[in-house]
Amino acid sequence: MPAEVSAQPLLGIFGVVLGAGVVTLTSRMISLGMPDFRGLHGFGYDESAWIGSAFDAGLMFIGPFTVFLGGLMGPRRILLTAAALFTVLFIFLPFAHSYSLVITLTLLSGLASGTFISTHAYVRPPEHSSSLPSFHTCAVRNLRGWGR
After folding, report:
1. Is 148 inside a domain boundary?
2. DSSP string spanning 63-115?
3. What pTM was estimated for this model as a whole?
4. Per 3-state DSSP, what percentage of the chain is helix, strand, and coil (rounded to 5)?
5. For the ranges 31-35, 55-59, 109-113, which has the lowest average pLDDT?
6. Average pLDDT of 57-70?
7. Which domain holds residue 107?
8. In a domain, 1, yes or no
9. Is 147 inside a domain boundary?
10. How many Å apart are CA 33 and CA 44, to the nearest integer?
11. What span, in angstroms and rounded, lies between the C-alpha atoms of 99 and 121?
12. Were 114 and a residue from 6, 38, 59, 129 both cysteine, which residue would form a disulfide, CB within 3.0 to 4.6 Å?
């Protein structure tokens, strides 16, 4: 069963680009806030280096699965589920009490947020792609023929 076509494609593209921006800011906040986080939880330098790596591993791992599931179930369902999961995980992350729980929550939040990066690569409304003043939309428009 193919996914339904959105009646408001600009809103969908705005959500995907906003989500990709949030992922980029989150990755930057992890690297900038690591000394405070390390001091709060008492982690060593080597232990805290794996926190950013776990987030990045989740981002990279989920990409091919997101494209497949987005084509199967529709990008709206995938992105709304991932956004809700990402929000819940980052609400609970400061309250994690052990190193393994912090790594697990960070990896899962990387998996949830990675959906925005890979969905961003294939969402393209044909009639509106040239009207958005966005570098992302221009790049996606140039990749239109890939994979067909």
Report:
1. no
2. HHHHHHHHHHH-HHHHHHHHHHHHHHHHHHGGG--SHHHHHHHHHHHHHHHHH
3. 0.71
4. 75, 0, 25
5. 31-35
6. 85
7. 9-142
8. no
9. no
10. 14
11. 33
12. 59
